[in-house]
Amino acid sequence: MAVELHGGEPLTAGRDHLADVLRELAAQPCVIRVSLQTNGVLLDKQWLDLFEAIYPNIRIGISLDGDAQGNAWRVGYDGKEVYPRVTAALRLLANRGRAAGVIAAVTPAILGRAEAVLDHLAGFAAVNAVSFVPCFDISIQHPTSTPGRRVPARRLLQQAALEGVGGPSWAIQPHEYADFVLAATAHWITAGHFARMKLEPAVSAIRRLRGLDTGFCHFSNMKCDHIFTLYPDGRFGSCDELPWPQARLSRLDQSADVAQVVAA
Predict the structure, then answer these.
(1) Which residues of 144-154 are buried (b: 16+ CB within 10 A; e: fewer)?
(2) Nearest 10 degrees: CA dihedral of 225, 231, 246, 226?
(3) Which residues of 34-45 are buried (b: 16+ CB within 10 A; e: fewer)?
(4) All residues at 6 or more sequence positions from 109 whose CB lies less than 8 Å from its CB, including other chains
(5) Strand 235-238 vs strand 248-251: parallel, antiparallel, or unpaired?
(6) Pairing label, strands 100-106, 127-134
(7) How far is CA 133 from CA 78, 100, 147, 248, in A?
(8) Can you state the angle between helices 83-95 and 45-54, rounded to 10 degrees?
(9) Beta strand 59-63 with 100-106: parallel, antiparallel or unpaired?
């Protein structure tokens, strides 16, 4: 079993809680790999010390949408860009001799700039893989709900981005994503980045065209059949990209019996 700590932002669970989770996973012989996907904002020396002490082989992924211009949609609670804090985390990882993969959302902020964005990400010594994922959010019409009357700065930015015609300002169309991926792949080859950095979805597409398998679930024959999701409130379901409640299998806070989970 491979376990991925995802979110939301998993580091907001706190060091004590995440330490308990990692100790439990380290004690399970069936767990062969643990990875953590984080926006990098909270990642510091104390977190890395914790990982090295409890689960030194943990794989770390960073969410960074290219350069400062491309990452401008990612802001803190105060509405300010988090790019400087994320890049500081990447430099910290490099100083510790750690590698990290980057997941970069393709938004209008990086369209037409595939070469420059890829060069920028390749410039970080810690980055050994980049996965460009599409931001197909055209159908979103309303901002995320906010508890209380006071609307935070980040939500005001989101509301403003929803006021235009044709969907949110951060969304793209499928043909735009295809053009971006093709341009990024061509540059990944000609610039020689392939020698030290994996690129998705390029590598998985190439492997399938050559008759080889891949671990990238979108290109795997198993697809969602081998992915399960556990939510903080006890819900247990299949792949989190499938619609809820159809994807629901069980509730672990109500029936933690292994046989019942397997049967579900």
Answers:
(1) eeeeeeeeeeb
(2) 0
(3) bebbbbbbbbee
(4) 65, 66, 69, 70, 71, 72, 73, 170
(5) antiparallel
(6) parallel
(7) 26, 17, 30, 25
(8) 40
(9) parallel
Q: What are the φ and ψ backbone dihedral angles of 35, each rounded to 5 degrees?
A: -130, 160
CA angle 185-191-195, nearest 5°?
85
User: Quick one: 8 exposed, middle or buried, by C-beta within 10 A (0-12, 13-18, 19+)?
Assistant: exposed
Amino acid in the structure at residue 173: Q
The token pair that represents 221 in the structure block: 């024959």
pTM over 0.85, yes/no: yes
Distance CA 190, CA 222 (A): 33
CA max distance for the chain:
56
Q: What is the pLDDT along the chain (264 residues), one digit of tens a residue?
A: 999 999 889 999 999 999 999 999 999 999 999 999 999 999 999 999 999 999 999 999 999 999 999 999 898 888 889 999 999 999 999 999 999 999 999 999 999 999 999 999 999 999 999 999 999 988 888 888 877 788 888 888 888 888 877 789 889 999 999 999 999 999 999 999 999 999 999 999 999 999 999 888 888 887 777 889 998 888 999 988 888 889 999 988 887 688 888 888
Residues in a beta bridge with 199 = 130
Token pair for residue 1? 């079993």
